[in-house]
Amino acid sequence: MKALLVAVFLFLVSLVQGQDSIKTNVPDRSKKTRIVEVACGECQFGMDGKSCDLAVKIKDKPYFVDGTSIDDHGDAHAKDGFCNSVRKAAVQGAIVNGRFQATYFRLLDNNKKQKK
Predict the structure, then answer these.
(1) What's the chain's average pLDDT?
(2) Would you tell me which of 12, 47, 77, 97 could form a disulfide with 41, CB atoms 3.0–4.6 Å apart?
(3) 34 within a domain of the structure (yes/no)
(4) How far apart are CA 4 and CA 11, in angstroms?
(5) What gap in Å lies between CA 44 and CA 33, rounded to an integer?
(6) 42-65 confidence digits (pLDDT tens)
């Protein structure tokens, strides 16, 4: 019985923590979606920072991303991870105070050609 209560408690805590993150998996059909380069800002784009953080490059300028994180898209240090390669993503959002505020973020498949 005690183990069941602990399991239920942990499940509820995980649900509450999930509510804190911004949902970036559904595009707003009324807004333009753009295809951008995405990678670790420090490792691939040469940005100043203290740890590996997700960044997008828009018009050849990199911006750190809010609304999704580097860890939301797999192992950043894998062969095709953000610290080792520059990928493409379909995004929606705005640049606010020098950071890209993502409202939609979908990593594109490396192996397939994508429409712009």
Answers:
(1) 83
(2) 47
(3) yes
(4) 11
(5) 23
(6) 999 999 999 999 999 999 999 999
Domain count, the chain: 1
Say whether pTM exceeds 0.85.
no
* Identity of the residue numbered 5: L
How far apart are the C-alpha atoms of 20 and 29, rounded to whole Å?
Answer: 24
Residue ranges making up the domain that contains 28: 24-107
* Structural contact between residues 67 and 22, judged by C-beta atoms closer than 8 angstroms: yes
Dist CA 59 CA 105 (whole Å): 17
- Per the CB < 8 A criterion, the answer to whether 28 and 103 are in contact is yes
C-alpha–C-alpha distance, residues 5 and 22, integer Å: 29
3-state secondary structure of 99: strand
CA distance 28 to 79: 32
**Both ends of the chain: CA-CA distance in Å?**
55
Share of the chain above pLDDT 90, in %: 63
Q: Taking residues 11-25, what's their average pLDDT?
A: 51
Better-predicted residue by pLDDT, 59 or 10? 59
